[in-house]
Amino acid sequence: MVKKRLISVIYLLVFLGILGVGIGKMWGKGREAKASFFAMDTYISLTLYGKDGEKAVLEAQEKMTELEGLWSATHKESIVYALNHSGGAPVILDDETKELLRFAVSMARETEGALEPTIYPVLLSWGFTTGENRIPDREEIQDLLKYVGYDNIRIHGKEALLPSGTQLDFGAVAKGYAGDMLVELLRERGITSGLLDLGGNIQAIGSKPDGSSWRIGLRDPFGDGYLGVIEASDLAVVTSGNYERFFVGEDGNVYGHIIDPVTGCPADSGLASVTVIAKEGKVCDALSTALFVMGLEKASDYWREHRDFDMILITEDGKIYLTEGAKSRFSLNNSYEEYKWELIGER
Ligand code: AMP
Ligand code: MG
Predict the structure, then answer these.
(1) Please, what is the angle between helix 174-188 and helix 53-71, to 10°?
(2) Do residues 266 and 126 touch, judged by C-beta distance below 8 A?
(3) Strands across the sheet containing 159-161
């Protein structure tokens, strides 16, 4: 009798134990941890689900602040600032910055200089870093373009060397690169579901906690709303557009922050925005900026040659051009249904 009762108690304890672990797991999985802060010149918002999400989100925020400290062109303590003011002397790089620099140079080569990590002197002359915008004259731009060219960058072992006058700007790639680093860090901490929004650079970890895809809004480049929704899991979705940062000159023209390295002037390629969808944030970030500079025709050719990413291009005249893979993820919002769209296919 006593033995029977003891066995029942053991069964009950085992049952309660299993129930406890189950509830614990569900609770851990469904729990949301959030952080919103300002870094890399933009609002960042991280939403994570999983056990220890609170700890992970703080670690991610710290990492982001650390990377900003390294890669900001304006912080006087940053490695980029040191490079830009080295007067042609070699500068020792940490491993992360060296990898980012190598990546930026390789993408500059791949996009034939549409991505130009040494565009900084020109960007400065337009006042995009200070907010004191102005329209530099032709001569000034031509003078500054002499210092622009990714071929000027030398990397030897741990050191990098920029000729005097050449200056770096990681503005087009740093957020994507940092996003990938955060995704890696968070996965190591056991996060299997989350959404990182780094000022419009979206990086999805896994799917939503209920297993469905993340729904990412595509900004209307001509207004405040969202044109539609992109469904994505385990992907990065990055948009570039001159609408993100621009000024209206005394001549009444609109000047945007993405510079065409050939002219030294804001890119005027007929595109209003470029969204790139791919596994890695760094690739999306580099490409969205470069394809914006290229314009519809060249960007479409670039995609035809590579095909390892998807994209949505919106032209200044309000038409959507997208790859098959992007179309399968994208749906227009009701209020934009009159928008015309076209698939980017073979030539
Ligand atoms: P994104 O928002 O990723 O398209 O990056 C735009 C930022 O990259 C600008 O604010 C500049 O800091 C920098 N930038 C502008 N034009 C270029 C270019 N052609 N290549 C590389 N970086 C650029
Ligand atoms: Mg970019």
Answers:
(1) 150
(2) yes
(3) 91-92, 159-161, 154-156
Closest CA to 45 of 180, 199, 238: 199
The CB of 258 under 6 Å from ligand 1? The reply is yes
CA torsion angle for 14, 15, 19, 20 (degrees, to 10)? -30
Q: Is the pLDDT of residue 5 over 70?
A: no
* Residue 246 confidence (pLDDT): 87
- Distances from the Cα of 216 to the Cαs of 57, 139, 309, in angstroms? 20, 43, 17
- pLDDT per position as a tens digit, 261-299: 999 999 999 999 999 999 999 999 999 999 999 999 999
- Mean pLDDT of the chain, nearest integer: 92
What φ, ψ does residue 105 adopt, rounded to 5°?
-65, -40
Does residue 314 contact residue 272 with C-beta atoms inside 8 Å? yes
Per-residue confidence (pLDDT) for residue 4, from 0 to 100: 61
* pLDDT at site 200: 85
Q: Tell me how far apart the alpha carbons of residues 109 and 231 are, in angstroms, rounded to a whole number.
A: 31
Q: Which ranges of the chain does DSSP label H, i.e. alpha helix?
A: 2-30, 53-71, 79-84, 95-110, 120-125, 138-145, 174-188, 281-306, 324-327
- Tokens found for residue 8: 């029942």
Q: Roughly how many angstroms between the first and final C-alpha of the chain, as a whole number?
A: 84
Q: Decide whether any atom of ligand 1 lies within 6 Å of the 115 Cβ.
A: yes
Residue 336 tokens, joined: 């934009």
Strands 226-232 and 330-332: antiparallel
Cα 238 from Cα 203, distance rounded (Å): 8
Q: Is the pLDDT of residue 242 over 90?
A: no
This prediction has a pTM of 0.91
For 336, the enclosing helix (H) or strand (E) is: none
Which among 71, 173, 259 is the best mutation to test ligand 1's pocket, defined by most ligand atoms within 8 Å of the CB?
Answer: 259
Q: Is the pLDDT of residue 216 over 80?
A: yes
What is the distance in A from the centroid of ligand 1 to the CA of 335?
31
Measured in Å, residue 195 CA sits from the centre of ligand 1 at: 24
Written as six digits, the tokens of 243 are 């609408």
